[in-house]
Structures are given as structure tokens and as C-alpha cells.
Amino acid sequence: MASLVEISSVFLIILGILFPSAAADEGNGTISSAGVYVKVLGQSGKIMMSRSENIESDENRVTVEMDEIKETDLSGNPVGAGGAPATKHSFNTFANQQFEYSEVGDGEFENISAKTFNFSATIDNGAKLVVDVYIFTENGTYSLNGENTTVSEGTVKFNIFIENWKFCGDTGVTCSKGSTTEIGKYVDFTIAIKGKGAAPQKKTGGGKKTTADEYDLGSGSSVIISDKVQYDDNGDWVPTPTGYPKLEQKGSKTLFVFRFDKFSKSVLYDPQVDLGKSPDTPETPTMDKETNAEGVWVKVLGKSGKIQVGNRQNPSQDPNRITIEFSELKEKKTDGSDIKDNKHRFNNFAVTDFQFSPPMDAEFMNLTVKKFTFNATLNEEGAMLETEVLIFREDGEITLGNETTMVKKGNMKFSTTIKDWKFCGQGGTTCSQSEIGEFLDFGMTIKGKGTPKKKPNSDKGNAEEYDLGEDSSVVMSRKVKYNTDDWTTMASGYPMVVTQGSKQIFYIRLNKFTGTAYYDPTVIYNTDGINGSPRNSVSLFACILSVFICVFLF
């Protein structure tokens, strides 16, 4: 008996937050919820998505069409292409394929609730194609191998499963072309994804929603293409074969081609489509904020809260700039594993909108500073992230427990406050599977011109210092302060640095608390002087984590 082969692709369409409702039309394969409409054609399985009930007439709709699936050898040549349909290993059209539909039901994905239904068909060679469609009915986030995705009420995704696929060369499966025996090495799956734009255009620079490749589909829609796949349901995400995914032109169509290595059970792939804002929703521009003092410029991106530090008005143009980026905030159990409840983790700041206060003069530890704040709401429970940015206007020193650090004019620090976070099992907070939260892990990337490397001999006291390149560094203190108590040593093994793809993420761990927690690393930043003036050393206080948690006890 042939082994089960399952190919799963996950697509997401973020459509905005509208009114909740749900309906399905069994006759034509239509589902709607939260003001979003998805229609699947009974012949071909083409999927059309829109915010308009009349999907076909909406010029801003996005269509996803399965173009072909084929097995290839080590050189990428198709195999098993000849013979009767029942023995073929390549299918270059789904145009005449008939699909059947299930009823709409309530479901969830990664603990995020959704309306769902599926449609399925049997391909000529006996393989079965099943597509599950979801429209999320609540906000949430989930993570796949460090690529974090935020979904909102109205976000749509679908999984594609292919069962009972037989590879050329498997036991009992013989394929040949003339006198040549063919051996299957890959499965190539091709999909056409089209919006209003003429052809998908790869995005670069600011405005991207992800660290993966993103392509503009027109009218605010885009598709995010990951290069990670999961084989045989083993939980590990690994790179796709070199050169994939890739784009190909076929007549007037632009096609996305995904290549998967030979597998024994399954392969899972996860691109994403974002339809942008509703045409009826007024556009609210997200503003960036910048300020300067003592020759140092600090810019915070209104989308994501990323902080850039440099020696010019646009720090991104400084080749020696330092960037500080919030990565994730996750509640953990006693054994260090994640709390599964979606409301107790926030693993994507990339699309978070921040609001700013005007810059003002102030004091910090009796030192004059220039400051401003920015904040954003993290989840539907009302947790809020607030960050205060300071640039010192005079020399002085700051003491944290037994760690004293000198500061100079131009030094910068920022304090981060998290409000209204509710730990699982604390007070009246109940989480799925009766989970109990014990820690809060906060991750951030701090990057200079070079990759962070731990210095073997640091002159910064008991803290750990990491070289960021060009004489810049980050000093990671082991001290944390809860409420108004004294500074204490952080949990064993923290801070820690974890490599995740091309990023190195600094993690701190905070014990469960009911008030405030402070953490203070330091970034030492060297810049080239303006107009050829000598280099001067600028120390940057990057990140007091000042986490204020309001826990309601019942």
C-alpha cells in the first residue's frame, strides 16, 4: 500500500476588521465572515477573495489559482509524464477538476478561532486534494520558525493537502522515458496569485510586513513568500531547495513555483497574502518620530517601533548605525515552554502601529535629557507597550545595584513599559489547558555594522559585553529590578543570545510579578564626526525594560 503523502500550503489574507457574521453557499462554495467574502469555483478550485459580496465585479479582488503540480528528478526534469492519467506524476491543469464542499463550522488555528470549511477532489492518479479555508473571527499571532504573523478578525487562510502521491522509484513504482528509468527527487507546485496590479513586484526597504520576501499585488495587496518548509510533520522548519520559491512568466500569468524535496509523509509550506485596508476605511498614515541632541539622531519607526541611532538626520543612511528592534514577548511555564494561549504571547511587532508624544526637556537621575514616548496596544486584553526615549544633555553616572555606568552628552537610553498583562493562573485569569504562567521572556535584536560577538575581556564590570562592530558594543546587565525592591540577579542563564535565521536575538527573563520590572542593557555607539571632525565615543543606554503589569484579582 502506498504511503500517505500530504502537501500543505498555508495562505493568509489580512482584510481588516469589520463586522462579524458568517454564511456559506453550498452550491458555489462561498463563505463569508467578518465582512470578508471567499468564493471557490466548483470547477478548477480557483479561489477569489474580496470585501465585496459581489466578488467577481470587485476590481481589487485577489485570486489564487492552482496551475500545475509535477514530480521532477535531481536535475529538475519532469518524470512520470507519460502514460495513462491514472499513472501520471505530472498534472498541468486543474481547469476541469470537480470539487465537493463541506458545511461551514467553528474551528481554530494555533488557538485562534475561525469559521472554516473545506473542499476536495480526487485527481486522476488517485491522489486526493483537500483544501481547508479559514476566516479568523478574532485577533491573534502565531509563529513558524521565527517568522511571526499577526492576524485580525477577517483574515483568511487556507491549507492545501495532497494525499496518496506515489514517487517514481518508490517500492512498486516504476517510471521510464524510452529506455531511461526515472527517479523522482522533488515535487514542484505552481500557483498563480493575482491582484489588481499588472504583475507582482518584489518589495524592498521600508513598508514590508515581514523579513521574508514580499511582493506587491497592487491596490495595497501583497503576498509574502517564505523560504521555509516542514517535512513529515516533524516540527522543524528548514530551507527550501536553492533558488526556490521563484517567479516564472507563463503567457500573461506570473507564477510562483515552490519546490519540495522528496518526503515520506508530508510537507508543509506557508506563504501569506495581505489584502490591505478596506476601501471604506479611511487611511490613517503611520508617522515616524525623530529627535536629536549633542550630534546624535534617534529615529523610531511608527510601524514596528524599530529604533535607529546614527550621526545624521536619517540614521538609516549612516553605515555605522545601530538598530534596536523588539522581537517578541512571550509568557512561559515553569519548564520554559510557551504558554499556548494566544492572548499570552506577542510574537510580532512588524505591523504594530505606534503613537508618539512631542519631544520635551526633562531629567533622569538628576541628569538633563531630551525625551519623547511612543506606545501601542498589544492584544485584545488591553496589554500596552509604552517606550520612553532619552538623549542625555550632560555627563554623569547611573547606578544599577552594584553596576555603575558613566554617561556623556549624546548618550541615549529607552525604557519600555508593558501595562495590563495578565499571567495565566494569576488572580482571575484562566488559560486554555489550565496553564500557569511563571515567566515573561522579552526578545530584542540590537545590531550594529557587525554581528554581535561576546567580548572575552570586558572592562564594563560584571555584565556581559558584545561587540557590534566599528567600536560599538552592547553591555547586557544581569540585574533586574521588581517594583521598588533592590536590583537582583536575573534567572540563571539569562540574558541569553539565540541565533534565529540571520538574526541574533537577546532574551531577558522576568519572574512572575504583579507590579514593575526594570532591565537596563547599555549600547556604546561610536560615530564618525560630522564634517570630518574626530571620532567621538557615544554611549547609548538601550532598553530599560520597565514592565508595569496590572493584574486584576478576583
Description:
- With 554 residues, the chain is mainly beta.
- The protein has no helices and 50 strands.
- A hairpin with a 2-residue loop joins strand 12 (140-144) and strand 13 (147-151).
- The model is unreliable at 1-10, 13-27 and 527-554 (pLDDT under 50).
- Residues 1-24 form the signal peptide.
- Keywords: Signal.
Q: Span from first to last CA?
A: 58 Å
Number of helices: 0
What is the molecular shape?
A: elongated
Largest β-sheet summary:
13 strands, mixed
* Poorly predicted spans: 1-10, 13-27, 527-554
Q: What structural category do the secondary elements indicate?
A: mainly beta
Please count the beta strands (DSSP E, at least 2 residues each).
Answer: 50
Q: Please tell me the overall pLDDT.
A: 77
Percent helix range: under 10%
- Radius of gyration using CA atoms only: 26 Å
Which strand-content bin applies to the residues? over 45%
Topology at a glance:
Elements (H helix, E strand, L loop, with lengths): L5 E9 L7 E4 L4 E4 L2 E5 L6 E4 L11 E11 L17 E2 L8 E2 L3 E5 L2 E11 L5 E9 L3 E5 L2 E5 L4 E8 L11 E3 L2 E3 L3 E9 L6 E2 L10 E6 L2 E5 L2 E4 L5 E3 L6 E5 L2 E9 L4 E4 L2 E3 L14 E5 L2 E5 L6 E4 L11 E11 L12 E2 L8 E2 L3 E5 L2 E11 L6 E9 L3 E5 L2 E5 L4 E8 L19 E9 L5 E2 L9 E6 L2 E5 L2 E4 L4 E3 L6 E5 L2 E9 L4 E4 L2 E6 L8 E10 L1 E2 L6
Short description:
This protein has 554 residues and is mainly beta.
Please tag this protein with its features:
mainly beta, 13-stranded mixed sheet, 10-stranded mixed sheet, elongated
